[in-house]
Amino acid sequence: MSVLGIDQITYGAADLPRCRQFFLDWGLSLVQESAQELVFESLNGCRVVVAHSDKPGLPAGVEPDPTLREVVWGVDTPESLAIYRGRLQSQPGFVDADGRIGCTDPNGLAVRLQLTQKREVQLESALVNTWTDRPRRNQRSPAYDRATPVEVGHVVFFVTDLKATGAFYIDNLDFVVSDSYPQRGLFLRCAQEGGHHDLFLLQPPEPRKGLNHVAFSVRDLHEVVGGGMHMSRSGWSTELGPGRHPISSAMFWYFESPAGALVEYYTDEDELTADWEPREFTPGPTVFAEWAIKGGIDGNTRRQVNAGAPGGKFMTDKPKPPTE
User: Fold this and answer.
1) Does residue 78 fall inside a structural domain?
2) 53 within a domain of the structure (yes/no)
3) Containing structural domain, residue 57
């Protein structure tokens, strides 16, 4: 029995035309479109929905729009779905309809589960030559003019009660702790074997609810850079990147999203098993980014001039301005 990963996310936003262009530039495929909703897909069928804030039936957000309204997790079998149904039916906001079950987590987010709709994809990725292993012979590494994300790899939320929210996912959905900031953050993966994290919960010094970022898996570092360069050329604003996370080892590039908070291209995260022993870290810029380029690489010249060093405890902790 296992949750396999994220099957779908749903944003609430007012500026659908701008979101439409952003996610097309990001590399997703637009598969459905109406006046109140845009539906995109990644390469493996993971869906990104952007619904107008006024769309009837949209789950309540944990903060004002634009933000993420719902996360749908895919499970492996109908039998697993039935087991999770039994666990969640006593939770606040329980729903059971149209092949999905779900509830509201302790942070106020709409959480849903369904039999996974994602499809297997076979992709060629870059081979990496190291001093001791030279698998790439008589061939160049790939170069990408833009990215085509494989899936939504993880989501990150600010929470007001880290203990309660973490326990919800661990006790009800069998998530596993990969690493942590004691009393401040939990990196959680869906199962014992898998990537470093599928969900990261972060309680800031002044606790608040909200979306931190949504991360999209791509093939390799070359696609992180190619995708980031394309987004830069298209006029979208870099928050930070390219760079490398010390905790998960992943290479990244973050952009500001009109659908809410940030989105990230990432690749080459640590792969963990049941033998992994969780570590504890003190929050700070050196554990967020071992190296990173503030403002990003220039999309045209491939040079960055007068870039400042990373600063601040959490590079993506930017509270939203108060709404009028």
Assistant:
1) yes
2) yes
3) 3-119
188-200 pLDDT, tens digit per residue, is 999 999 999 999 9
Confidence of residue 295 (pLDDT cuts 50, 70, 90): confident
194 domain residue, yes or no: no
pLDDT digits (tens, 9 = 90+) for 230-280: 999 999 999 999 999 999 999 999 999 999 999 999 999 999 999 999 999
Q: By C-alpha distance, which of 264, 233, 214 is closest to 13?
A: 214
Q: Extract the runs of DSSP E, i.e. beta strands, from 53-203.
A: 67-75, 95-97, 100-104, 110-115, 151-158, 176-181, 185-189, 194-195, 199-202
Between helix 78-88 and helix 162-173 the angle, nearest 10°, is 140
How many Cα neighbours within 13 Å face the side chain of 310? 23
The backbone torsions φ and ψ at residue 225, rounded to the nearest 5 degrees and listed phi first, read -70, -45
Q: Are 197 and 270 in contact (CB under 8 A)?
A: no
Give the number of other Cβ atoms within 10 Å of residue 44's Cβ: 19
Centroid of chain to Cα 283 = 19
* Beta-strand relationship, 110-115 and 194-195: unpaired
Task: Please state the φ and ψ torsions of residue 217, each to the nearest 5 degrees.
Answer: -75, 135
CA distance linking residue 226 with residue 219, whole number of Å: 11
Q: Domain holding 104: CATH number? A: 3.10.180.10
For the chain, the domain total comes to: 1
